[in-house]
Amino acid sequence: MRIDTPIIAAVVLGSAISISGAQAPPDRAARQATLIAASGGNKALGKPIFEKICSNCHKFGTMGKEIGPDLSTIAATRKRPEIIESILFPSKIIADQYQPVLIQTKDGDIVSGLVIKENARAVTLVTSDHPEKPIEVLKSQIQARKKSAVSAMPEGLADTYTNEQVLGLIAFLLAGPGGI
User: Fold this and answer.
1) Domain membership of residue 159 as a residue range
2) Nearest to residue 130, comparing CAs of 69, 66, 70, 57?
3) For a Cys-Cys bond, which of 70, 134, 160, 161 suits 59, CB 3.0-4.6 Å?
4) What is the mean pLDDT of each run of 10 residues along the chain (180 residues)?
5) Pair 94, 151: CB distance under 8 Å
6) What is the Cα gyration radius of the chain?
7) What are phi and psi of 168, to 5 degrees?
8) What kind and span of H or E run contains 75?
């Protein structure tokens, strides 16, 4: 499997990159301050966002998949500002068990994902592109392997949603699976 992402390739190869013509990223720090200062949130607005985006990797009660952290008990383990930070800056803090790895094969392919199984013969990864289809890489084909500083959760997932919708997602998560 070939992943043609310059940022991932640069991290694997250890080189610096410049992306010309790229749009400036939204000011997530300002948005973070706005969301932290806001109160409330309509959890009914948050449920469809969770179902569409988050459930591809996160479990919440009976919804979702077990690739990323289970968010069923997030209200008991995280405060609202921490949840906002995790949504806006997913790579800031990555728990060890969810630390992606980058593998460059001898053929030049680059694979990024979470190791779900490893033995003497191969490494099996689940990728954010196709979480339902794990990829097996033979160890004899691995040229380079290192931990990624980039979360499997893509940056900018909340960028297309309004603050009201993001506050709804947070309210939905804080209500817990029983509060749906």
Assistant:
1) 27-94+152-179
2) 57
3) 70
4) 40 37 68 94 96 94 92 95 96 92 95 94 89 92 95 91 97 90
5) yes
6) 18
7) -65, -40
8) helix 74-77
pTM of the model: 0.78
Q: What is the DSSP string of 6-69?
A: HHHHHHHHT-----TTPPPPP-HHHHHHHHHH-----HHHHHHHHHHTGGGT-EETTEE-SSS-
Q: Which residues of 110-133 are buried (b: 16+ CB within 10 A; e: fewer)?
A: bbbbbbeeeeeebbebbbbeebee
We report the CATH number of the domain holding residue 62 as 1.10.760.10
Helix (H) or strand (E) holding 123: strand 122-126
Residue 7 lies in a domain: no
Half-sphere exposure of 154 (CA within 13 A, CB side): 12
Count of domains observed in the chain: 1
Using CB atoms within 10 A of its CB, is residue 46 exposed (0-12), middle (13-18) or buried (19+)?
buried
Q: For residue 42, tell me if it sits in a domain.
A: yes
d(CA 167, CA 46): 7
At residue 22, the pLDDT reads: 43
